[in-house]
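Bumping with the actual sequence this time:
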Amino acid sequence: MSQQDPMLASVMASAKERDALIASNTKDNTSANIGALIQGGVNLLTQKKRGLKDFNKSVLKEEQKIYDKVGGFSSEYEGFNAKSETFFDGLIGKYNEIKTHLDSGTMKDASLGKKDLANIKNLIDQYGSAIPKVLASADAITDAANIASKDGMGAPGTLSVTGAPPGQLAIIKKISSGGPAGEEIDLRHEGGTIVLYDTVTGAELNIREFNKVVTDKKNPYIKYVPNLTKGMTNAFDSFNKNSEGNMIDTFTQPKGDGPNPIRTMSVGKETELKEALMGSKRFDYTTNKVSNYRDGGGYKEMINQYGESIWEDMMPDGLTNDTAWPEVVPMFGDPKYDTFYTKYYEPMLDYLATTTINNNTQDIQRESQTNPEERKAPKEEKAGIEKYNAKLDEYFSRVGLSDEDQEKMKIAEKGDVVEVILNGKLTKIRKK
């Protein structure tokens, strides 16, 4: 469309709407109906003679309104432009054809014709409303991808697998990127909406549904991996610091003299801390006994809000066995709760507690991180070093240490620093 086309105001309006959205982060079969509306063999000359003046004014007025709308959202997508313009030119042509017959009185069913005019307008409005949201979403996708390239998948601020399907996200990126990628996306209208179709992958994006969900604050279209660092730190501090923020001697002990002595944590105390972080054991009122189910402690609300993302985005596949978080979570007392707790809840609590301790003990000497030969084994492990090594192997398995990394630890010489993946993060461990 030429720059002289009176669409500029509409283009500017759409651009403003787009910018505002970016800043805030955020089966009527029309074609079938149209085919049945128009009488065959209508004399165009007769149409022109019937109120030509008023008719032309009406058509041109309506046509200009529609072109103004279309002009506001067809210019952003190089590579997608041609298909978009062809699609909407076809819709406008059908609109004008129906309008012609309505104004000239040659429509078989005027009510049906008016309905189809409304459907076409609605299609255009749907698409026009989606454009700034698509652009904002494309920018959000790019930002999240940049974080993933830097910090890895599953890092806070990256795209969550619990959000929009990748195929749909790819459609958004393709049409906003333009060029050959944009040419891979087709448009079609069906069921009273416009559907974007990826000719390469087969993925589809329903514009009407997209408009509904993209602004849903409770269940947003694009979801990100949450940042749980603060919540984990608060959980750790609640057991290890007083109201003034100073370390207490419950799970760690000062070592040496001076104002800032190094603090140490024994294996036994680390186990106690982990159990405390995982929460107290629930009381079963049906049996009047304390159950073996921990209530989640400080992680309870965290799991209620982000359980699916924690399980599917953050936890290593070795801990989740590549299974999806259940769509329906059974309540405590439900017959299915035992299976849920054993398979999902307890492993998640263990992961969160282990990660919390790992992330908040940088200045603490943990006996669990030193060679067992250089420390006194806990009382419960005095049966021998082999039993302790078995416990250590179990610990490494629980935190997701791969067989390859375990082998690296075994063959390393004393004093070597070994890089391993611990809890999904690259961690350096010195073999003493």
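The tokens above came from a reply further down the thread. Residues 229-369 form one domain.
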